[in-house]
Design goal:
Blueprint (H helix, E strand, L loop, with lengths): L7 E5 L2 E5 L7 E6 L8 E5 L4 E5 L8 E6 L5 E3 L13 E2 L16 E4 L7 H8 L5 E4 L3 H6 L9 E4 L14 H8 L5 H12 L1 H4 L5 H8 L9 E4 L6 H13 L3 H14 L1 H12 L5 H11 L3 H14 L3 H9 L3 H11 L2
Parallel strand pairs: 9-12, 10-11, 10-12
Antiparallel strand pairs: 1-2, 2-5, 3-4, 3-6, 6-7, 8-9
Helix pairs in contact: 4-10, 7-8, 9-10
């Protein structure tokens, strides 16, 4: 597949911006609500490198298809899934493999807790056809803010972090309890260092992620939605391991992980403003900023933990999770295109 022949979709306000760099002549744009089903509707001919499509008229989340004579069809969607009340909800499809294959769109979702959401958001969520919900929170977190389970989905509560201090505490009340004790930058750095250490332990022999891998075995267990509270740390590592198992390179996996900083920017700003009402201590405010976002160095801790024990990803998956080469091949046949 020509890497320059691609479809980049961004939802901006009330329209979709469809970017088609290096698009061949005589290209046409279609829309579908069921990727890879063969069911699509013609929208327009492509002229130039950007096409604007109004949001109005789409009954579900749209997936766009670019068709051109002599070229393979290319499918794309806005990575952010706009479901009111759910933070950082996004699709992990569309990532390219070195050999030219692509992770299928609409199969692997990740984000924050599915609560609280109104009836309109529940209806939108149900259109995604999610079949497996993997909740990486602990029981206390889940009981405090229980998920709405989409129609037809199987829900599994799978605590990914074994101790409460191993989470970033995106719940503002939990954050405040610790922040009120922070007076110096040294204290803030110590708390952040303890939090960051979760990334060293999360990828290793984690039963929550073993269950995620099990969900890849069959077509009827996807689409999968994996989440924690904020959809960035426990989910960040789970999402990274999923993509690695499918054969996505580490640079791309890191890029997907770092999108949490982009998609959580506005909600993080609101959290910080609420914290500022309780304290003006610079060290405490700096700490909350660091806890609420993500940075490359955090996921790199997980990569380093894996590299310290194993020579490559496939050895890691086999030794830590019993995943055979045959199983990897099956997943890639099932979930790549």
């Amino acid at each position: 597949m020509n890497r320059n022949f691609k479809l980049i979709v961004n939802k901006i306000s009330s329209y979709y911006s469809i970017l088609t760099p290096m698009c061949p002549k005589e290209s046409m744009l279609y829309v579908t609500y069921q990727p890879y089903s063969g069911e699509d509707t013609y929208l327009c001919d492509i002229k130039g490198t950007e096409t604007i499509i109004p949001e109005a008229g789409f009954v579900k989340r749209p997936f766009f298809i670019l068709k051109s004579k002599g070229c393979p069809e290319v499918l794309g969607a806005d990575r952010l899934v706009d479901i009111g009340g759910i933070e950082n909800f996004r699709d992990q499809g569309g990532y390219y493999m070195p050999e030219g294959k692509t992770v299928k769109w609409g199969r692997f979702y990740r984000g924050g807790a599915m609560t609280p959401i109104d009836e309109a958001s529940r209806a939108s969520l149900n259109t995604l056809g999610i079949r497996t919900v993997l909740d990486y929170r602990d029981k206390k977190e889940a009981d405090k803010k229980p998920d709405y389970i989409p129609n037809g989905a199987t829900y599994k509560l799978l605590c990914a972090a074994k101790r409460p201090e191993e989470t970033s505490g995106a719940d503002i009340s939990s954050l405040m309890e610790g922040l009120m004790t922070v007076q110096t930058q040294e204290q803030a750095d110590s708390i952040y260092s303890e939090f960051a250490s979760i990334y060293r332990k999360l990828p290793l022999h984690n039963s929550a992620y073993a269950a995620m891998f099990d969900a890849l075995d069959k077509g009827d267990t996807v689409p999968i939605y994996q989440h924690c509270s904020a959809g960035k740390d426990r989910t960040g590592v789970g999402g990274a391991l999923l993509l690695l198992a499918l054969g996505v390179d580490r640079d791309t996996v890191m890029g997907d992980y770092c999108l949490s900083a982009v998609y959580r920017e506005e909600v993080n700003r609101k959290y910080i403003e609420r914290v500022r009402l309780r304290t003006d201590n610079p060290a405490a405010l700096d700490l909350v900023r660091r806890l609420l976002t993500v940075e490359k160095g955090l996921l790199q801790i997980s990569f380093d933990a894996i590299d310290a024990l194993y020579p490559d990803t496939e050895t890691f998956l086999h030794q830590e999770y019993g995943i055979t080469q045959e199983r990897l091949t099956h997943w890639r046949e099932l979930h790549l295109i």
